[in-house]
Amino acid sequence: MKTLKIPEATIMRLSVYSRYLSEMDRKGIITISSGDIAEGVGVSPAQVRKDLAYFGEFGIRGVGYNVKDLNRTILKILGLSEGWNIALVGIGNLGLALSTYRGFKDRGFTITCIFDNNPEKVGMIVNGIEVMHIDRIEEIIPQRKTQIGAITVPASAAQDVADKLVRAGIKAILNFAPVVLNVPPEIELRNVDLSVNLEVLTFNLGGRMA
Amino acid sequence: MKTLKIPEATIMRLSVYSRYLSEMDRKGIITISSGDIAEGVGVSPAQVRKDLAYFGEFGIRGVGYNVKDLNRTILKILGLSEGWNIALVGIGNLGLALSTYRGFKDRGFTITCIFDNNPEKVGMIVNGIEVMHIDRIEEIIPQRKTQIGAITVPASAAQDVADKLVRAGIKAILNFAPVVLNVPPEIELRNVDLSVNLEVLTFNLGGRMA
What we know:
The structure is a homodimer of 210-residue chains. With 210 residues, chain A is an alpha/beta fold. The first copy, chain A, has helices spanning 8-26, 34-41, 45-53, 67-77, 93-99, 102-106, 137-143, 155-167, 194-209; strands at 31-32, 65-66, 84-89, 109-116, 125-126, 129-133, 148-151, 172-175, 188-191. Chain A folds into two domains: 8-77, Winged helix-like DNA-binding domain superfamily/Winged helix DNA-binding domain (Arc Repressor Mutant, subunit A); 84-195, 3-Layer(aba) Sandwich (Rossmann fold), CATH 3.40.50. In chain A, the strands form two sheets. The first copy, chain A, has a seven-stranded mixed beta sheet with strand order 5-6-4-3-7-8-9, with helices on both faces. Chain A has a two-stranded antiparallel ribbon with strand order 1-2. In chain A, strand 7, helix 8 and strand 8 form a beta-alpha-beta unit. The longest helix of chain A has 19 residues, at 8-26.
């Protein structure tokens, strides 16, 4: 069913649709139209239909989509039918923010271990998890069956952390450090750069002010 | 020079190229090839040339680009020739992380004011800025000539904060709250959803494991 041609923007919107469908499901809504989804998340109905069409026919003409079924299908597409374990490396302000981010748990992401190299932080309990020294990454990550590493250390330490995560057998890295990481091609790497998001805004502002 | 057809992915890469060019400039590098930029940031040389071609001819064949000139041009394209002022609303862990995020200052973004509704936080000094009550948003933002609002409050409070920012005359909103905001069409709105980034990773992992 899945092809390799699906644009990343579609994947990102599917993620947003799914969060909205979960909310509607909690409210007891049984069926929903592409127009309802579109209005709920702020895109056009045509966009919703086009995005869902990548994955085959879901809706019934004139009735719409079954909320639970559609959400289950999207979660499966996104690889979220089963949960994922996350190792968090770096427990500064951003690490703390991620460790308490409710959005992760709601979507099946569990933080299984937290690492830092600061002796004052090692041994601290954050959200029920003991902070361990980064030298233990290769020992702990396989034990806790953790597939994803989130890096929130300073740029200067990020490559070393990435190398440790790779040696520990991690499959994917979400990197918040403002630096380009070198990892083997089989590792999924995604960079989250907070400035980039601001700069898309200022580009758009410039365009409007010109 | 600017057209409306430039893909957002190009804008995001320009932002990354520019950060790399600043780093090279600090190291004293005078000229650089598209291949060097490509290797430095982890994309293909053809992609670099294609992205830069949206904005006209920069390089000299066989010589490459002048680092300072190219960076200055990209900063202008991104609307970063002059600085931008940011109001931060919500000083939890994520707000604290943003308030100390070095990447902002380096790119000409200045946090001019911080707001929260928690009486225990109002009056606190964060990075040299006094935290004020959110009821003062409409009074303070025009005084401090602030064009961009960053929302890091819980989802339930985000729409009320957005409404206040709009009434205060803000031009753009960077929203970290996991909720869809309604703002007038003239306001630039960008949502940063930390889960979405994780779900692009798990989609890609699923595809590889299938």
